[in-house]
Amino acid sequence: MQSSELILGSAIGLFTAFLWAVSTNVYQSQSKAATPLAISSIKMWVAMVAMALVAFLPFRTGAFYMPLESLLFLAGSVTVGLVIGDLVYLIGQERVGVSKAFPITSTYPILTYFIAVMFVGEEIIVSRILGVVIAVVGVILISRSQAGIPAPRNCVSAPCDEPGPEEEPSTDWYGLGFSLLAALCWATGSVLLQRGVEGIDPIDANFVRMVVGSGLYVPIVAGAVLRGMPTPSRRAAKIIVAAGMLGMTVGSLLYTYAVKLVGAAVAALMGSTSPLFALPISILVLKEGYSPKSLVGALMTVAGVVLVVIAV
Q: What is the pLDDT averaged over residues 164-181?
C-alpha cells in the first residue's frame, strides 16, 4: 500500500475510534434504561435505514454494485463480527466481568494481523507487529485503570461498543473462552470485510452489512422480548438513535473505508483505540478519575500507532 493511503486510512480509522468513544459514552449514559441487546439492535436498525438512503441517492456517481462473492464475504463479516462476536462477548463479560473480558478481547488486532497474513497476504513487518502489540497493551492499561469506560466493539468493526456495569470478576473458564472467541470473531470479521470490500464502493459494502446485521437481530430481539426483556423508554430510544447515527452509521462506514485503504490489520488497530479517546471524555465530561496507569497506557497506545504508521 502507498504511504498516502496508509496515512489517510489510519487517520480515518482513528477518527472512527473517536466516534465510537463518543457514542459509547452516550450508550453508557442510557445503560439503566436499555439493555445492551436493545442498544445493539436499535443502532443497527438505524444504521440500516440511514445506509439505504445513502446507497440509493439519486445523485450518486455510480450505481449500486454487489457481486455474489463480495456479498458472501460481507454477509460473513457482519454475521461473525458484529452479531456472533458481540453476543459471545456479552456472555463472557457477564460471566467473568469487564475487568477480565475486555483485556482478552482487546487482543483482537493482534489476531487480525496474523489472520490477515495467512489469508489475505498481509505483509509481515516486524516493527508494525511490535507497534500493534504496544498499542494493544496501552489500550488494555487505559481500560483497566478506568472502571467507568465500557469495552468497545467494534467493531469491525467496528466498531460495536457495548456498555455494561463493572462486575466483580470470578474465575470462569467458559467466560474466558467466550471472551477469547469474541476476539477471534472480531478479527475474522475484519478480514472477511477486507475481502468483501475489494473492488466495491464502501457505501454499497456497508449497506449490505447493515441489512444482513439488521435481519439477524430480528429473531434474536424477538426471542429476548418473549423471555421478558424490557423495552427502552422513549427518551432512551431517541438518545440511542442519535448516538447510533454517529457511532454505527458514520463509524461503520468510515471503518469500511479504512479497511479498504489500509487493510484489516491496520484498521482493526486504529478502531480499537477508542478507549484512548474515551479517557479524556470520561475525565472531562463524566468527571471520572484517572491514574498514572491510564496515562502510561495512553502514551503506549500513541507510540504503538505511530510505529504502525511509520513502519517500513
A: 69
